[in-house]
């Protein structure tokens, strides 16, 4: 009986070992097949067919997928994506984007490398003084720009924005929209963590104004300080920032880095209304100025994106400055809400019920491929890089199949930011002076520069600063 059990045991072990080696062999054969397919695709990265003697130099090795890519020769296997105006301090790295691998670098010596397929630009640092020209047919340009035109007006014109094949901006028309870049998630809007009961807010009104304003970037293109200054003539506003300052924060909260401090948020949460005024007026340009009061359970008084109703959690969650012909009328309406609890709370019902009824906002948050302050998700920079990497590889594969490349381009109306305009009642204010002397001339000048830039880029040659400025002055 014992011998029989031993024979059965040995037979079982033999069968298991045979099955294991069979599965392993099949896996190796499959991987080799995949590797051969990858080799044929990679060879098409080059602008011209490889010479017979060069083919071995670009052999794709399976184990490189999981290696640390330490040798310079590894670059020859993958498309190079060059950050022309760096966003991060990394000098070189390989990134895996799904099944695709790309080499990212800030080293400009790769400009003429035969494996370079895309140039990545950070909008704030985009400069016409140095561009990767001449631009070859297979060179894509990609733009990452989460900021408003205040940071670089040249990009906010049709002539310049349409130079880019791939975009990540605040616009819904972007290839990677960053419209919700300041919103962590739907749940933080519903959260009642900082919300103070209305009865307590009414009690706090004995020592606090009904409205609070916190801004230290004064006299921007939106002319917001002129509006707030006029509003202060008709209603009490507590202003904690450097702009129109009339109330002090505790010493430990006066640093700009304290804007997300819990104690600072608790101070803001005591108010009934927060002035949420953007620094520029652009479609879909929405910052924390809107999301912060919504998260705190305070009613935002919003001035900024003309398309803001597309992004609010409900159709009655914010007071829109554009609905009032003069700050005096806005002040009168705020005073009415301040003395009518039922009317005031109608702006907070969506939050008290946890009911976000805006399908566009819900869909955008659900489909978003990146996270905000969430270590479990990719950030939007990594997602942008992988979008470009995947698209580069898509065209590599199309070329391998003998198809024409897919051509992407930013839409003409991509960044809808009109010329800065002063409020009609602000002619004697510093904001009006700033607009007349700086922002309006900057806008007009940037428009000329954008058209000059496009003309010279389309000529596909390196140009000197003298050539550029001569063309600008001709406009």
Automatic annotation (TrEMBL):
Keyword Acyltransferase appears in the UniProt entry: no
Keywords: Endoplasmic reticulum, Glycoprotein, Glycosyltransferase, Membrane, Signal, Signal-anchor, Transferase, Transmembrane, Transmembrane helix
Segments forming domain Fucosyltransferase C-terminal: 207-395
Sample GO molecular function, one term: peptide-O-fucosyltransferase activity
Broad enzyme group: transferase
InterPro entries: Alpha-1_3-FUT_met (IPR017176), Glyco_tran_10_C (IPR055270), Glyco_tran_10_N (IPR031481), Glyco_trans_10 (IPR001503), GT10-like_C_sf (IPR038577)
Protein name per its UniProtKB record: GDP-fucose protein O-fucosyltransferase
Organism placement in taxonomy: Eukaryota, Metazoa, Chordata, Craniata, Vertebrata
Gene: FUT10
